[in-house]
Amino acid sequence: MFYYSDDITIDKGLNRKIYRSRIDPNSIEYKKFCDEIESIFTTDSLEKNPLVDSEQYIAIKDATNIHLDPDKEDRVANLMDKMAKRVHSRRIQLFPLFEDFDRVRNGHVTQNQFLRVLNDLGLLTLLNGFEKDNLLEKFRVKIGGRDDIDYITFCHELNGLAGFEAGIP
Question: What is the per-residue pLDDT for 109?
């Protein structure tokens, strides 16, 4: 049971009425409330039925493709070619380092994490300030009100330019 005071309102009293305890009117049934919230993101009783096909929650992106002006697009294309040559010559695997920073496995990392991975891979030295800004702008997506970088699209494009097949190390 979760007790609440009259000073605290949960969704302006709406949830308080739905989840009010039948035993104590000054408390809510916390377990029932949590189960309802969890049902949005997970499949109920998955541990009892592990073979059920559950769907993964995917956050909605605000923009799928960012279109830059032609000048910036050319700069990013030249930069991607430069990075692809280094990735090909050194046989660099891009995904593992990005996945280390992607805790929720949604295919996005912060801009600082993206730049750190590029530095760890030895690709950041190929960029000057303007190219770095253009690259970040090209792969930027807005998730939950925050600007992140779509590293999966970046890796697929870079691997394609480097001549690597998708999914093959």
Answer: 92
Q: What is the pTM of this model?
A: 0.62
112 part of a folded domain: yes
What's the domain range around 14?
A: 2-41
CA–CA separation, 169 and 91 (whole Å): 9
Residue 20 lies in a domain: yes
CA–CA dist 26, 117 (Å, integer): 51
Per DSSP (E only), the strands in the chain are: 2-3, 27-28, 108-110, 140-143, 146-150
CATH of the domain at 96: 1.10.238.10
CA gap 26, 35 in Å, rounded: 20
Per-residue confidence band for 60, with pLDDT thresholds at 50, 70 and 90: low
> Mind giving me the DSSP string for 57-105?
P-PPPS-S-----HHHHHHHHHHHHHHHHHHHHHT---HHHHHHH-TT-
Residue 157 shares a structural domain with residue 96: yes
